[in-house]
Specification:
Blueprint (H helix, E strand, L loop, with lengths): L8 H13 L2 H16 L4 H18 L1 H23 L1 H7 L8 H14 L6 H16 L4 H10 L2 H4 L6 H17 L5 H8 L4 H16 L4 H11 L6 H8 L14 H18 L11 H25 L5 H13 L2 H20 L1 H11 L7 H16 L2 H18 L4 H18 L4 H10 L3 H29 L4 H26 L1
Helix pairs in contact: 1-2, 2-3, 2-18, 3-18, 4-10, 4-16, 4-17, 4-18, 5-7, 6-7, 6-8, 6-12, 7-8, 7-14, 7-23, 8-23, 8-24, 10-11, 10-18, 10-21, 11-22, 12-24, 12-25, 13-24, 15-16, 16-17, 18-21, 19-21, 20-21, 20-22, 20-24, 21-22, 22-24, 24-25
Length: about 500
């Protein structure tokens, strides 16, 4: 049955409610209910029965989906332990001995954010309080620190296939492959999409580029000039930071090994388990990958628990409770996934993507522009909702079928969805990572958004242009072009900014 324009109702309901309510779970539920109402001829009782029995139960009993949900739970427990053990802070504080210049401080904060790749929300809360006194001492603006935190939280996490972000995204990808009957691997597609995650890569690389060249521009340059005029910060601030007085995330007896060894165990387990199948150079089964990764996070958690007791950081009772609390904390993610899978299945059944494709073909929309269009629409949804995860759930059921219809590599479409969601999230003042980054740096939220926005817009415009190029070339080397353009823009913009201020 052809539902025509009615097929647009579920994603539209999800988008509008997400914008209005800022609640991803509510918007996905209502979008799914709207789809069920269409299938059931407007009967609300039958629609509720259908959405529960034909979609939620079906998604939960699917073996792939069940494996993803189990993995998510174990990831949550591990992350909570790492965050609260104090190991990350102990590692970061150890660099104070050698960090004595602005360049070193910015690069260390950047590296710290990258090392905390396992938790996007953890980066601002872990790295921010550790480096804030050092930035004050070296007269680096807190706006700069907030930008570094924001640019190494989600942009780093979104590139890693074996953490919560990657597992969530691969779950969305596989659901669409199943709907289309495509035999491609979700893991392989995710890895192939990494070079096409243009915005994330540009956001991460811009930090060392600005640090080495000292080419701050626009409002960030003015914030840095203002920070340079501030009186010297007392050394006691840094000393207090080193003593672990920065809050609940810092522990007196914590050691850097408490964050290093558990992560090594996770990687080692993953590689040892899958190496006989040729990993990471050969495709491995999705179930095998999830089992190995779940084992890795379990063994990593056990090792971390042992280290916590060895160094007498916490009692075993408190440690295990923390682990269980971390597992419970993934409930929202699990619910979001089930709702997203259900909505995606409904959108597929309604033929939403086919309707959109037919409309684009009728106006002779060029396939070359499809990746850029996906990026722009994803950015709009993410900016308005403040949620990149919600954007992925809404956009993936549309983007992958569009890529299939227009014969565009799935990796490009996935990369455009992820980059668009991240770009909008970076620009949005209601994004959780934006808010937490300003909190971790103790920087005014409005000031953080204003100083970060020019950098985000530069990276966003470059991404749009390069997605057009990717639509033409289909080449992962497009990322090289994007980085080259970024380098040129930074130098040109800085010179223009200086001239304009001199003439003012």
């Amino acid at each position: 049955m052809n539902y025509g324009i009615l097929s647009l109702l579920p994603p539209l309901v999800a988008v509008v409610l997400a914008i209005k309510s800022k609640n991803v779970i509510l918007s996905l539920f209502c979008g799914g209910l709207a789809g069920a109402l269409i299938f059931c001829g407007g009967n609300p009782f039958a629609a509720v029965k259908s959405v529960i029995g034909d979609y939620y139960f079906v998604q939960l009993t699917d073996s792939y989906n069940a494996g993803v949900l189990v993995l998510i739970v174990f990831i949550g427990g591990f992350i909570k332990l790492v965050e609260k053990s104090g190991g990350a802070q102990a590692f970061s504080k150890s660099v104070y001995k050698v960090v004595n210049t602005s360049l070193k401080a910015q690069l260390c904060a950047w590296l710290g954010g990258i090392l905390i790749f396992f938790s996007d929300l953890g980066t601002p809360l872990l790295v921010g309080p550790v480096f804030r006194p050092l930035f004050d001492k070296l007269k680096i603006s807190r706006q700069k620190l907030a930008w570094i935190l924001d640019s190494t939280s989600s942009p780093v996490a979104i590139l890693i296939p074996f953490i919560g972000w990657g597992v969530y995204i691969m779950g969305l990808i596989q659901a669409e492959f199943d709907n289309l009957g495509v035999p491609d691997s979700d893991y392989t597609t995710f890895v192939q999409a990494i070079p096409f995650q243009l915005y994330a890569i540009l956001a991460i690389l811009l930090i060392p580029l600005v640090a080495f060249t000292r080419k701050d521009f626009s409002l960030m340059r003015r914030a840095e000039e203002a920070a340079a005029q501030q009186p010297d910060a007392p050394d006691e601030t840094v000393a207090a930071q080193q003593q672990g007085t920065d809050g609940s995330y810092s522990k007196a007896n914590a050691r850097p090994i408490m964050v290093i060894l558990p992560i090594v165990v996770v990687f080692a387990t993953l590689f040892i388990t899958l190496a006989p199948q040729g990993f990471p150079f050969k495709k491995v089964g999705g179930n095998d990958f999830r089992v190995a990764l779940t084992m890795g996070y379990l063994f990593g958690a056990v090792v971390l628990m042992a280290l916590i007791r060895l160094f007498k950081v916490m009692t075993f009772h408190d440690t295990f409770k923390l682990y269980v609390d971390g597992m419970k904390g993934m409930t929202d993610v699990a619910v979001t996934l089930v709702l997203a899978w259900s909505l995606g299945s409904m959108i597929s059944g309604l033929g939403t993507a086919s309707f959109i494709v037919e409309g684009m073909q009728s106006i002779q929309f060029s396939p070359v522009l499809v990746p850029a269009a996906i990026f722009l629409f994803g950015a709009f949804v993410s900016f308005a909702t403040g949620s990149s995860w919600g954007t992925f759930a809404i956009m993936m059921p549309l983007a992958i079928p569009m890529a299939y219809a227009f014969h565009i590599p799935f990796a490009i479409a996935v990369g455009a969805v992820l980059s668009g969601g991240l770009f909008g999230d970076h620009c949005s003042p209601i994004s959780d990572t934006t808010i937490l980054s300003s909190t971790g740096a103790e920087c005014d939220l409005v000031e953080h958004v204003k100083t970060q926005l020019p950098y985000a817009l530069v990276n966003g415009v470059i991404s749009i242009l390069c997605y057009i190029v990717a639509g033409i070339t289909r080449s992962p080397l497009t990322v090289v072009l994007a980085v080259a353009i970024q380098l040129a823009v930074i130098f040109v913009w800085n010179k223009m900014d200086v001239k304009l201020e001199a003439n003012a």
